[in-house]
Design goal:
By secondary structure, this protein is an alpha+beta fold. It is built from six helices and 22 strands. The strands form six sheets. A six-stranded antiparallel sheet has the order 5-4-3-2-6-7, with helices on one face. Helix 1 runs parallel beside helix 4 and helix 5 runs antiparallel to helix 6. The radius of gyration is 51 Å and the shape is rod-shaped.
Length: 499
Amino acid sequence: MLKRLIPFVFFVVPFAFAQEAKPAVASPADTATTREVPVRYWVIGDSVEQEAIFVKIEKDTVYLRAVDESTQKLFERLNEAEAAALQESNGQKVEEEDEFEDDDKVEEKKPADVIMTDAVKDSLAAKSDSASAADSAAAAEAAKAAEIAADAEDDLEAALEKEEKRLKMEEIAKVEAEIREREIQDSLANVVENPYIKIFRLDLKRLYNLEDKVMIDLSLSNYVVPVIKEEEEQIELYPPGKANLLVVSNPEACSLFVNGIPLHQVAPDTIKNIKPGKYNISVMKVLRDVEWWGSATVKINADSLNKVEIAVERPSTRLTLNTNPEAVEVYIGQEPSVNHMPDYETDVVVNEVKPQPELQIFFRKVGYRDTSITTEVKAFMPNFINVELQSVDDVEYIQGQREFNQKRRDRRVGKVLLFSSIAPILAGGVLWYLAERNWSDAADKKHEYSRSVFDSEKAQRLIKDNHDLNNQGDTKAAISIGLGAIGAGLLVAGVVFAF
């Protein structure tokens, strides 16, 4: 057996040392601007979520690290925090156990004093007798060992052979242990070379960042979690409150926006702790390297189930105008005037708009101060514009706005009357022309029968035609005069109201 193991040892040991000499490829170090976070991920087709450490998304591949002993404690703390938060949200009290006991309450036991009675003295005497008996037994065993050693000296050659065999077996066991250690180091080196769990991003149904409590957007081909700088102030993405809104998108995994501000959430998801009111909720998904948007105006109530379903639309250039309050006049590209009616009224989506670097938009409503903004119209974007008008308590200012509206209304009525006067005037002119034709034909008939000497049938017919034509001409002339009077009246009224 020993002869078979010796060649195996001389072959495997150099191979193991050669494997140790091969350098391991170190994983790329994290930059100062990114960080790794604990996540829960759900692979399509699996029934449960799994835990891992998120590293990055690079070229549509999600890089994760498996949970080890150090990170397992982090997940335990996060799970405990989630359970405590859930209990608090349900109105339950979280009981905290005391980690340390009160040392003052622990009484130290003092050794009891021994009373020397006759029984105790007899017991101590018995112990001393047993101790002397034990000493004599130990002397007997030592003598027996000496006899055995004397016998072993006679068989020295057999003992040396046995010791040599034992040393060889220990050497073989040591070599086998070294081989196993090299194999473990090789497996660890492989782990260092390939430390990541790699998953195609579209194979994941969701990826939740436990540290920041947000969904990671799986529509991005490249993404890293940035480092949060403590000195930067947190910007409120929306007014805080106690209402919640569930947003469902079609298709799924769309990025969420409130009034055009990104939330770093992915639908379907719930917008939590938002103030009740009116908001423009929009979703966006990148399809074939093009952003597809969908939006809806939602009124969020505090004491009801708030839910909205939004489908993305084909990319187009448009303006999405929302105001508070509603029904605000909108003028695009020109100031409000008495000669110009508003182009739109909010809330409205303007589709017929061209991309341009600057576009001035005016907003006007009685009881609120007139407001104007200048914005950029981006191509193939919804271009969200949310304006909150400032209310006015000045009575004279409000009266001026009402007079402006009345004057503009009169101008509009005047223009309508002016355009309305055209039809009766034209109709009266045409009828007058036809009356003139009838009168001319009647005169021809009269001239023709006046030359006739005899009272014939032809003469009677000419007299009748003359009479009929004169009557038709008179009727048309009367109608023409009436239409002309109507047209003139409308014209005068239009001039009065319009100017």
